[in-house]
Amino acid sequence: MKNDSKNHDRIYSGTIIKMLASHEEIARYKLPVGDEKLDMNSLIGKELSLEYLNEIHCIGCGRKTKKSFAQGYCYPCLINSPETDRCILHPELCQAHEGISRDMEWSQTRCLQDHFVYLSDTTGLKVGVTRVSQIPTRWIDQGATRAVRIARTPNRFLAGTIEVFLKAYFRDKTNWRNMLTNKQTEKPDLLKEKERAFQIMAEEFRQYLVYDNEITSVNFPVREYPVKVKTLTFDKRPVIEGTLEGIKGQYLIFDGGRVVNIRRHNGYKIRLQI
Question: Which end of the chain, N or C, is more open, meaning fewer C-beta atoms within 10 Å of its C-beta?
Fold first, then answer.
């Protein structure tokens, strides 16, 4: 919904979900606000005001909830939805390939699809897993600047099992503070690290190895990286405003090192003024 204001050229109101990202010369972001999809790249360098309107709607069922869980779900959906099942965070625990799921129809299109195991550089080397259809969106969402595929599996369980094996040799977490300050703790040689992964790979997983050495690079729309970051949430600060300095991962970076994790606020109803 758009309105005019003396102090702002444009006003949008509605619930938000994580930004849509596309891989171009510079990653492009669109923020869903209600029925609108705002071109966030075009707003970098401009003054923004984001006001929480004290409503949260579950991104699973749409019902109004006082508190969200698992980045946007009401409590019943947390307990029952396939989108909040344990294999979302721990792919190695997926049982869809055995016919066990909260919703097998859902799992057919998510868990029982080809997955990649990959190495990425998110200001440091990490191993990860995602559906083939989520490449390169997954890498943009996590703030990776480079990534290479290691293995391709026919389901989520196998990809997660390979990831668990490799976690003994590679980190699987992103240091989000380093990612947002662009602090490079190391500059990994992805192809050399991929070769190391191949050398240590268990025999049972070798049939899934990917020999294509294409490296995907991602450039993020950031004018200036902060030296230190301060996380803001609508729960503690209902109005967040300032100059948008850039976007990386699912974070809006404002002046003064203040950052907002949009995905953390899935389902929140806000008023965004430009």
Answer: N
Give the torsion through C-alpha atoms of 122, 123, 124, 125, to 10 deg: 30
Residue 8: its pLDDT value, please?
63
Residues 124, 168 share a domain: yes
Mark whether 98 and 22 lie in a shared domain. Answer: no
So what's the pLDDT on residue 185?
73
Instruction: Transcribe 245-267 into DSSP letters.
Output: EEEETTEEEEGGGEEEETGGGTT
Where helices occur in the chain by DSSP H, the ranges are 75-80, 104-109, 137-141, 156-166, 176-181, 190-200
In percent, the amount of the chain with pLDDT more than 70 equals: 97
**One domain for residues 96 and 182:** yes
Q: What are the pLDDT digits (tens) for 1-14?
A: 444 444 568 999 99
Same domain as 203, residue 175: yes
Whole-model pTM above 0.85?
A: yes
Interatomic CA distance for residues 64 and 55, integer angstroms: 7
Q: What is the pLDDT of residue 2?
A: 42
Residues 212 and 89 grouped into a single domain: yes
On the question of pLDDT at 76 being above 70, the answer is yes
CA distances from 71 to 59, 68, 157, 231, 261 (A): 9, 7, 23, 16, 10
Query: Residue 19: which domain range?
Result: 2-72+222-273
Shared domain for 26 and 117, answered yes or no, is no
